[in-house]
Amino acid sequence: MVLKAPGVLLVFLLACFALARRETRHEKFRRQHVDFPKTSIPDARRYCNLLMQQRNLTVGICKPSNTFIHAEPAQVDSVCTSGGTHHDENYYNSNVAFALTACRVVGGSQRPPCNYRPKLSTQRIRVACVNGMPVHYKGQA
């Protein structure tokens, strides 16, 4: 069989590669937890409801809680190196406090549409690090 349209094969292969590529643990951490600059939505409840949906945290089931960190990604990443202090295992505490928005699901249903209650604070954070990069948000330090 001779392909008459090699461009079609190339497009097909590129599409397969894009579908097969999964986000790294660090990319997932950033998608789920870093919002910088902070998305401008004046109402904190609407902020949580929109961000949780936009970041794919309400697909099929409402994620019970999630915290967004409002700092430059590089500053958050630095918690795993010079910007943090080793706590235990692979957990590090930030040396500085970050502006945070914690979103907690409210209501009886765990199925979308999801409704979240916000809590704004400024606190030090604890993250799990792998190869010098944050991969899991543990909570406040």
UniProtKB/TrEMBL annotation:
<dbReference type="Pfam" id="PF00074">
    <property type="entry name" value="RnaseA"/>
</dbReference>
<keyword id="KW-0540">Nuclease</keyword>
<keyword id="KW-1015">Disulfide bond</keyword>
<dbReference type="GO" id="GO:0003676">
    <property type="term" value="F:nucleic acid binding"/>
</dbReference>
<dbReference type="InterPro" id="IPR023412">
    <property type="entry name" value="RNaseA_domain"/>
</dbReference>
<dbReference type="InterPro" id="IPR036816">
    <property type="entry name" value="RNaseA-like_dom_sf"/>
</dbReference>
<dbReference type="GO" id="GO:0050830">
    <property type="term" value="P:defense response to Gram-positive bacterium"/>
</dbReference>
<feature type="domain" description="Ribonuclease A-domain">
    <location>
        <begin position="22"/>
        <end position="141"/>
    </location>
</feature>
<keyword id="KW-0732">Signal</keyword>
<dbReference type="GO" id="GO:0016787">
    <property type="term" value="F:hydrolase activity"/>
</dbReference>
<dbReference type="GO" id="GO:0004540">
    <property type="term" value="F:RNA nuclease activity"/>
</dbReference>
<comment type="similarity">
    <text>Belongs to the pancreatic ribonuclease family.</text>
</comment>
<keyword id="KW-0255">Endonuclease</keyword>
<protein>
    <submittedName>
        <fullName>Ribonuclease CL2</fullName>
    </submittedName>
</protein>
<feature type="signal peptide">
    <location>
        <begin position="1"/>
        <end position="20"/>
    </location>
</feature>
<dbReference type="InterPro" id="IPR001427">
    <property type="entry name" value="RNaseA"/>
</dbReference>
<dbReference type="InterPro" id="IPR023411">
    <property type="entry name" value="RNaseA_AS"/>
</dbReference>
<dbReference type="GO" id="GO:0004519">
    <property type="term" value="F:endonuclease activity"/>
</dbReference>
<dbReference type="GO" id="GO:0005576">
    <property type="term" value="C:extracellular region"/>
</dbReference>
<keyword id="KW-0378">Hydrolase</keyword>
<keyword id="KW-0964">Secreted</keyword>
